[in-house]
Amino acid sequence: MSMAKEVKAGIIGTADAVLPFGALGFRVYVAENAEEGRIAVKQASEQGVGVLLVDETLAVGMANTLSELREAGWPIITVIPGLKGSLGTGLTLLKKRVEKAIGADILFKGEER
Predict the structure, then answer these.
(1) Which of 44-48, 58-62, 69-73 has the weakest average pLDDT?
(2) Is the sign of the CA dihedral 57, 58, 63, 68 positive or negative?
(3) What's the rounded Cα separation, in Å, for the pair 96 and 88?
(4) Which residue has the higher pLDDT, 85 or 26?
(5) Bigger pLDDT: 106 or 31?
(6) Which CATH entry fits the domain spanning 8-82: 3.40.50.720, 3.40.50.10580, 3.90.950.10, 1.10.10.10?
(7) What does the alpha-carbon distance between residue 38 and residue 91 come to, in Å, rounded to a whole number?
């Protein structure tokens, strides 16, 4: 019998955006600005969250913090669109990661994002 480890998932964002995720089993961290977002990231880390979703609007102001966490080996940090829709931040971060990993832009082939 496999003893798979349960991974805790968390989400950081404005109350309107993240509270419904609590019903799905996510640990919910309400943050209205980047500073509150950084505090929420620290709490999530202390609580053993392995998968973290961050509202794109907050992620813009937390870019350095999120980069440091990725480099430190946080298992999964994903930027998701907020209630107002996508700002394109998630795609831009994905493009940068792919370029860093393989040395070429295979996703957008020179298109501006």
Answers:
(1) 69-73
(2) negative
(3) 13
(4) 26
(5) 31
(6) 3.40.50.10580
(7) 22
